[in-house]
Amino acid sequence: MIIVNQRLCERHMKRFVMHYLNICRRLQKKALEKAKAQIIVINERAYDVDGEAGRFHFTTHRVVEDGKSVFDTSKDVFVTLRGKE
Predict the structure, then answer these.
(1) For the whole model, what pTM was predicted?
(2) Among candidates 40, 34, 75, which has minimal Cα distance to 58?
(3) Cβ atoms of residues 78 and 58 within 8 Å
């Protein structure tokens, strides 16, 4: 059985967490710099889904860059399904 020094383990864990948080901060900074040229807009019409528990309404968004929609969650995330009647 190996006995681990608790202080040593805590020190390594703290270093790992700090390193991970620094990576997250750098990634967040890059994402924010990229998003400055883009605008996120809430779509006027909700995306409706009919299910066994009733109808659900989802708010969808689109990313606009230079006046053109480059990503729309109502089309790019939710797949349009046809009824099977």
Answers:
(1) 0.45
(2) 75
(3) yes
Q: CA 17 to CA 55: how far, in whole Å?
A: 43
Round to whole Å and give the CA distance between 85 and 66: 42
**Domain range annotation of the chain:** 1-36, 38-85
Compute how many other C-beta atoms are within 10 angstroms of the C-beta atom of residue 74: 16
Which pLDDT score is estimated for 34?
63
| pLDDT tens per residue, range 38-56 | 788 888 888 887 777 778 8
Tokens of 45: 């019409």
- Contact criterion met (CB below 8 Å) for 80 and 67: no
Would you say how long the chain is, in residues?
Answer: 85
- Mean of pLDDT over the chain: 76
